[in-house]
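[job 4471] stage=fold_predict status=RUNNING
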Amino acid sequence: MARQNPSNSAHGLHPWGPIWVAGGALLWATDALFRSQLVESYSPLWIVFMSHLICLAVALPLTIKSWRKWTQFHWSDWLALVVLSLGGSILAMVLFTYAFAHTSNYTIPILIQKLQPLIAVLLARVILKEKWQKGFGFVLVAALSGAVLISWPNQWQSPSWHSDDFLSLLAAVGAAVFWGGCTVAGRHLIATFGFLEITAARYFLAFLLLVPVVPFFGEWTTLAATPPSDWWNFLLMAWGPGYLALVVYYKGLEGTQASVATLCELAFPVGAVLINWVFLDSPLSLQQILGAVLLVGSVTWLSYHHAWSYKKGLVEVPFE
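[job 4471] inference complete, writing structure tokens
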């Protein structure tokens, strides 16, 4: 399939793209409500597998319907899809869970994830040849500063380091690299293929990769032992912060530069902190409130500037 320069009405940039991306990130933030009910009884691998199994009900029909497009994939398209499925849906979550379980300070792996925007922006500049909009560097610093403040709940204290934090740090950096790469990989595919198709293909391929892995770790017996109450948590987690969040996110990514999208994704820590405050009894500190103001303000300004640049014809589509 010859790759064409997408138009503004199809797969080009859209003024409301950043809003959709931020909306998907906020949906991701609801994940804690359901995952917190499951992590004590099930392994991270099984939780990831169940999410993909449940979403297969939609992913499989959509993937079959669009199979002709997959036969026309370039090698770069397949590479991008593998990054999304293997890297984003499986490895990143496993690495982050490992980092969270083995660190002596839970602040460390969360802070490391703030490398994602820097990684995604760098990859977008190198791989997609995206040009930064005017003032983007200032917004990047402000948004990252806000995200760090939100994720650092212990006021202005420095996190304490111990020798057993090293592997946790490496795992957290690995998760940040995979998730940062997913932003660029998704923007690459969305240049030609629809957001519904990309979401379905990501889940379908990840499920195929998980099928031989789950029995290797002896997890199949868990399926029969899952009580009905946990099934509801699996279903809600899979469809809300899982599949629906990705559909909304890719809808936004369809009309948003990867470098812009990665900043809008920082709406996730704002949503996560607010949900923890309201539902999980984890109030915000003054420092976190300051971070939320910085982050929300940066994303709001970025969305406004993106829409203004689009209307003035100042934003170019970075694909050939």
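[job 4471] summary: The chain is about 70% helix and 0% strand.
[job 4471] exit 0
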